[in-house]
Amino acid sequence: MKHSGFSGRIGVAREDITPPIGIYCRNWGAAKHDAAEGVHRPLTLTALTLQPDWQTKPLVLVDADLGWWADMPFGRKFSRRALAELGLHAPQYIFAFSHTHSAPPLCDPEPQWQGGELLPAYAEKVYTAVVAASHKALAAAQPATLEWHSGRCSLASNRDLRDGERIVCGYNPEIHADDTVVVGRVTDAADKIIATIANYACHPTTLGWQNRLISPDFVGAMRETMQQETGAPAMFLQGASGDLSPRYQYVGDTGVADAHGRQLGFAALATLADMEPVGHEFVYDSIVESGTPLATWKRQPYPVSRELRASVQTVELPLKDWPAAAELKRQYEACPDRTIAERLRRKLRVREALGDDKTYPLQIWAWRVGDAVIVGSFVEAYSCLQQELRMRFPERMIVWILVHGAIGYLPPASLYDEEVYQVWQTPFERGGLEALTDAAETAVRALLSDK
Predict the structure, then answer these.
(1) Best exposed site among 61, 311, 321, 386 by fewest CB in 10 Å?
(2) Which domain holds residue 388?
(3) Which of 170, 243, 230 is nearest to 202 (CA)?
């Protein structure tokens, strides 16, 4: 990979989106509580705006400490409203969720939810933060350069562990996990860092059903670690983590989440320290004859791209033959078991969002940012997707992210013969991951085309 830069106008701004104590915050079937009883760390929302020049409409990337839209139609309304107020089209706006499992669900409340009456006002707070941070970032935009580099972090582990006849969701030491961390560095005209980005695939499930606190999970300490060193806002972009999580997880101890965050933060800082000076690449120079022939390399400037393109493509994914929404609703309302009822509720909401068709037109957001490509969708794909895309584009920096929430998993076709959570949870039939991978490749190639 020779270089991955973008030069243009870049702005960054942050808003606090910490919800009130007492809000409904039950995200685990095994949880014994419904409402949050305190705050571990604040939740934040950060906007990054990108423009080749001040006259061009921006691309707006929002990173938020949120889990998912618990109601996809609710999320669509939210996005349409934000696009209208910001004056953007759908390809220009990406709302990236960290996927923390310790934040309130974004949806209209159900009558039985303790603290559910606080959800509408909280959703409005998040919306206000999206608009405010985007406007502030645009107002603060300045000539800047965004460059990327990849490193390694061992926080993530494979979480498909065979136990007898089934595969359970937890640390599997036998399978190597994708440990790639991709770091973005934003610098101003004086080469001072004004923002950093860490793209990493790992479920924020350090804190499990025992935790009763609002928390960004490991992402909070990751940002703090990076910001203490750089003095600039740090963003987090969740990667393809359907099969990845910390090996030590499902705890109530927030200190474990903070330790995980520091681990990722220091790995990202090491990657940052390994980057070349702004606007430079490392190239082979010549041979110097000595006691042995010495290969010399040098740093030299490269022309930093001002290319900025965005698109939204769709791919038709096959759906399972689930019961109709009316039948799932009947099962949910009749279920006396809290854990099983929570599974049915989520299944019902997904069925309602996707409809009763045989396929679903899944959207793929793709941005060309200089020589790099940011691409993602609102499914929890297995990490082999991002690994495959990187292999198909070895000369490009590919940043895969979870965008606009998460509606279901996409495991590889071979797992559909197994009794595994990600297979029976997802509404998508066998072959969905492979179809998305090919469609994402097509979207990337279209952005890189000179046409």
Answers:
(1) 321
(2) 6-276+307-319+357-448
(3) 243
Around 43, how many Cα atoms within 13 Å sit in the side-chain half-sphere? 29
Helix boundaries (H) for 147-253: 218-230
The pLDDT, as a whole number, for residue 1 is 52
Could you tell me if residue 383 is left (phi over 0), alpha (psi between -120 and 50 degrees) or otherwise beta? alpha
| pLDDT tens digits along 84-129 | 999 999 999 999 999 999 999 999 998 999 999 999 999 999 999 9
Q: What is the C-alpha to C-alpha distance for residues 356 and 205, in angstroms, rounded to an integer?
A: 31
The number of folded domains in the chain is 1
Would strands 234-238 and 193-200 be described as parallel, antiparallel, or unpaired? parallel
Measured CA distances, 2 to 39, 119, 189, 290, 304 (Å): 44, 47, 22, 28, 11
Instruction: Please check whether residue 271 lies inside any domain of the structure.
Output: yes
The full length of the chain comes to 451
Above 60 in pLDDT, residue 451? no
For β-strands 409-410 and 380-381, DSSP reports them as parallel
What is residue 355's DSSP assignment? -
- The answer to whether residues 137 and 11 touch, using CB atoms and an 8 Å cutoff, is yes
Give the residue-averaged pLDDT of 13-38: 96
What would the two tokens of residue 181 be?
């961390």
Q: 416-435 as b/e, with b when 16 or more CB fall inside 10 Å?
A: beeebbbbebbbbebebbeb
pLDDT digits (tens, 9 = 90+) for 84-94: 999 999 999 99
Q: What would the pLDDT profile of 339-361 be if each residue is shown by its tens digit?
A: 777 777 777 777 777 777 789 99
Alpha-carbon span 377 to 354, nearest angstrom: 15
Examine residue 301 and state whether it is found in any structural domain, yes or no: no
**What's the average model confidence in pLDDT over 201-211?**
98
195 located within any domain: yes
Is this structure's pTM higher than 0.90?
yes
Strands 280-289 and 293-301: antiparallel
**Residue pair 4/147 in contact by the 8 Å Cβ criterion:** yes
